[in-house]
Amino acid sequence: MSLDVAFTPIGHGGAEVQGRTVFVVDILRATTTICAALHHGARAIVPAASTEEALRLGQTLGSDDVLLAGERNTERIPGFALGNSPLEMTPEAVRGKLLVLTTTNGTGALLAAQGAATVYLAAAVNIGQAGRRAREIHRGGGDVLVICAGREGGFGLDDAYCAGRLVQAAIGDKKNTEGLNDAALASLDLVRRYGERWERPLRLSAAGRDLIAAGFRADITEAARPDAYPVLPQFAERRVTLEAPAS
């Protein structure tokens, strides 16, 4: 029984994820945006590794119900219908649609998790759902890995803090640190440092500062709303959908 955090997806694909339950975190903004899209009625989200792959997938899927969405360096990709803002994922925009999404960090982290037993997405906006599932698996003796998208292959304060909140929810008793790796312990320390208010670490992070500079301060406020979109997205067979109901 282990509960590990990886501050970047580098070196945590393939054999590292096999047999484990993985939670992918990219709170600013991919996992927040995907939660918003599914909550507002999108059928599914197909992550793409690059702009070129997104364009190819859009052509292959070829349908009026397919929308291209994504960003590079915070800005919407030219020619795409949507960017990577949760505030763009309105019911009018996404209901019944299949989104092909590519982002600077988040979709790469999702694709790295392929091969895990189960892959879920986590953010503040669904922390209740994600935290309950992480707690069920951890207490049931399963191995859990939280993969942070990070920032350009490195550490991101925003994702690490979110990982700490997920670990906190999973273990319940803060003194029970059995099975946690060093990164999980460090993420809990970030929660102790910044407290229960999500917006402060998000705003202070490099990703948050870049979003503010680019005019996306409202996205940080949206991403800091706990359980604003109480869904549990699951990534399987190259698509992110709402978790299927238990049979």
- CATH class descriptor name: Alpha Beta
Q: CATH H level: which superfamily?
A: ComB-like
The percentage helix is 25-40%
How do the strands line up in the largest sheet? 1-8-2-7
Q: Count up the domains.
A: 1
Question: N- to C-terminal separation?
Answer: 26 Å
Report strand %: 15-25%
* Biggest sheet character: 4 strands, parallel
CATH architecture: Alpha-Beta Complex
Q: Tally the helices: what do you get?
A: 10
Unreliable stretches, pLDDT < 50, 5 or more residues?
A: none
Q: What's the SSE pattern?
A: EEHEHEEHEHEHEHHHHHEE
Q: For the CA atoms, what is the radius of gyration? A: 17 Å
**Number of DSSP strands?**
10
Query: What structural category do the secondary elements indicate?
Result: alpha/beta
- Global geometry: globular
CATH topology: putative 2-phosphosulfolactate phosphatase
Which whole number gives the mean pLDDT? 94
Describe the structure.
This protein is α/β, with parallel strands linked by helices. It has a single domain, classed as putative 2-phosphosulfolactate phosphatase. The chain contains ten helices and ten strands. A hairpin with a 2-residue loop joins β4 and β5. α9 crosses α10. The longest helix has 15 residues. The radius of gyration is 17 Å and the shape is globular. The relative contact order is 0.23.
How does the SSE layout of this entry go?
Elements: E1 3-6, E2 21-25, H1 30-39, E3 44-47, H2 51-61, E4 66-72, E5 75-76, H3 91-94, E6 98-102, H4 106-112, E7 118-122, H5 127-139, E8 144-148, H6 157-171, H7 182-194, H8 199-204, H9 206-213, H10 217-223, E9 233-236, E10 239-242
Parallel strand pairs: 1-8, 2-7, 2-8, 3-6, 4-6
Antiparallel strand pairs: 4-5, 9-10
Helix pairs in contact: 5-6, 6-7, 9-10
